[in-house]
Design goal:
2 copies of one chain form a homodimer. With 321 residues, the first copy, chain A, is of the alpha/beta class. Helix content of chain A is 46%, strand content 15%.
Chain lengths: 321, 321
Amino acid sequence: MPSSAPLPQFDEVLDAAARIAPHARVTPVLRADALDAAAGASLVFKAEGLQHGGAFKFRGACNAVACLSAAEAANGVVTHSSGNHGAALGLAARLHSVTCHVVVPEGATAAKLALVAEQGAVLHRCAPTMAAREEHCARIQAATGATLVHPYADPRVIAGQGTATLELLAAAPGLDVLVVPVGGGGLAAGAALALSGRSPGTALVLAEPAGAADTARALRDGRREPGPAPDTVCDGLRADLGEPNFRILQALGAEVLTVDDADTLAAMRLLVARLKLLVEPSSAVALAAVLAHPARFAGRRVGIVLTGGNVDPAALPWAAA
Amino acid sequence: MPSSAPLPQFDEVLDAAARIAPHARVTPVLRADALDAAAGASLVFKAEGLQHGGAFKFRGACNAVACLSAAEAANGVVTHSSGNHGAALGLAARLHSVTCHVVVPEGATAAKLALVAEQGAVLHRCAPTMAAREEHCARIQAATGATLVHPYADPRVIAGQGTATLELLAAAPGLDVLVVPVGGGGLAAGAALALSGRSPGTALVLAEPAGAADTARALRDGRREPGPAPDTVCDGLRADLGEPNFRILQALGAEVLTVDDADTLAAMRLLVARLKLLVEPSSAVALAAVLAHPARFAGRRVGIVLTGGNVDPAALPWAAA
C-alpha cells in the first residue's frame, strides 16, 4: 500500500462488522478475581482464541474476502503467514467458495500449519524471511491472478480487526485503557480506529516483545526503520509494523510497553491457571505488560484482547521446567 | 439426610438462583465447530471453570451459606472435600463473614488444596476414606457447633447446583440432551430438578467414570450398594451417589453412560486444543461420553456442563506421554 493511499476510517470498521456478522463469532468477554487481584486493576479479556480458526485473524480475512468483486473472487486469494492469518484466510475463502494460496515460512509452528491445511488452502513453503515470503506471493499472483490479502498492511484487514475492539467496548463500556499485542499492527491499527469513533477517552496501549520492539522505536522516532532480527517466543509478533498501520497509530496515538519473554510466559501460565484459557504467548504478552507496570494500570478499568489460542497443548513452554 | 426427609423441588432451584445472584457469576456458554464435527452433533458447553473458585461448586455452597440463620452463621460451617467444594464453601463463607472448616483427605490434588487455603478456610487433614472424613467432620461439629454443609447430599447444595442448568437452558433453549458428570450427584440431581421445571423434554444423561460406576449400578438396581473402591483419574467423581441425590434421579429419570479414563483424557486434551479451555478430567468425562456414543447423540442439540478447571497446568496428564 503506497504511503499516499487513503487510510481506513472508523466507518470502515462499522462496515466490516456488518460484513462479517454472518460468519464471525461474537467471542466472550471473561474476567477472574485472581487476575484483578494480581494486577490491582479491573481486567476484562476478549477471548479471541474462541473465534473461528482460533484467533482474531478471521475478522480481517473475512472482511477482505467479502470485499472481493466476482471477477477477483474467481481468481482466488493469496497471502503469506506464519499461521493464524493463513488459517483465517483459508477459512474465509472456503466459506466464500474462493481458492486460497498460503505461503508459509519454514519454522512456523506445527499446530498453526495443521490449521492452515485443515481449511483446504494450498500450502507453499518458503524461507523464513519477509523477502522470501513476499517474492513467493508475487510469483503466485503473477501465475494465478489471485488477490493478495496481506496479513496486516491491508485496509480491509485493519478494518476487520477493529471489530474485536467494537465488540469489547459494547460488552465492557467505560474502559480506561485497552491493551493489545502488536506485531505487524493489524489488530493495533484496527483498535485505534475503533476507539477513535466509539470511545475516544480510552487510552490505547500496545504490548510488544522486547525482542521485536520495532513499533516502540517507530512511534518514538517517527519513522519505521529496519532493526535487529526479531528474537522472541511470540511467534505471531515477529513481523515489522506495516506502513498503513504505522500511519494510523501515529495519527491516533498509542503508547508502547515492551515485555520480556519470561514475563510473557509467566502471564500465559497465569491465564491458564486463573482464566482456564489456553492462549498463545503472542496473546499473553498483553497481560504481561499490565502486570509489569502496576503503577500505570492501578485501579483502572482495563480491556485486554487475548488474540489467539493456537498452541500445542502437548508442548506448553513450561512443561520442560 | 434421612430417607424420609422432603426432597428439594424445582422452586428451590429458582430460590437458589435469586439467593446466589449477587455473588455467583453467570458463566459463558461456548462452542467450537471442530467439536461439533467430532461429535456429529451441535454441542454447547457451560464453562463452570470460570465460576468463582474455578468450579460449579460455588453455586451450592453459596446457597447453603445464604440459607443459614444468624445463630447458625455465628458458629460457622464445616465440610469435607477433596478440593472444589472445600474451596467453594470457604469462599462463600468468607463472602458472608462466616468461619469455615474444611476436612481434606490425604491425596487431594495440590492445585485444589491451595485454592481451599487461599479462601482463608481452616484446613483439617484426614485419611482418604469417607468414614474418616465424616468422623472428622462430626468431631468439629461437636466442638464448634458448626453447621455441616455436605458436598452433595444436602438439599440446599442440590438446589444451588441446579442453577447452572437454569442458566444453560436460558442461553441455549431447546436442548435435546443435557450431559453432566456424576460423582456424589449434587450437580446431577440439581440438573434433574431444573430440567423438570424448565425443560421437561430435555433428556438427562449422566457421564460416570467406569472405575467409579456406582450411580449406573444404583439406578439400574434401584438401590445404592457399596461397590469396589473407586479407581479413576477423575478425582472429583470418586464419591458414591448421595441418598437424596439417588431419590431425585430415580424419581425424575436419568440415563448413565460410563466412560473409560483414556477416553476422558483424550476429551480433556481435545477441549484444550479446540475450546482453548483447561478443564479437569472430572469435567471432560461428559464430552468423552458423547464422543464414545455417536449414535446416541447424532444430530442432536446437546448441552454439556464443564464443571471445573482446577488442574495444575504444569502437570497435565499428557505431558509425560
